[in-house]
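Methods — Computational structure assignment.
A single polypeptide chain was analysed. Its primary sequence is given first, followed by the predicted tertiary structure written as structure tokens.
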Amino acid sequence: MNKTELAKEIASRMSTTVTETLQFLNTMNDVISDAISKEESVMLQNFGQYMPWKQVERPGRNPRTGENCVISKRTSVKFKPGKGLIEKLNSQ
């Protein structure tokens, strides 16, 4: 499911327009991104938690050329599913 399909599904369930739903999804994305960039976790009860994750500089290899290279340090995101999501996935 892509963003537009998600917006259509949410809009139909909430009786809102797709445009309003896309605006909400974009705003939610911005808020979560801003929090993670400030090194804050975002927890959505019964869904899961988004946590910033610092990756250290490490050796790597270019898969096309086989050349060794260094992969720079960066911040990534980890997602830990919540208990409610796990239960829903395993109840089917």
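Note: Strands lie at 42-44, 48-55, 58-61, 68-71, 74-81.
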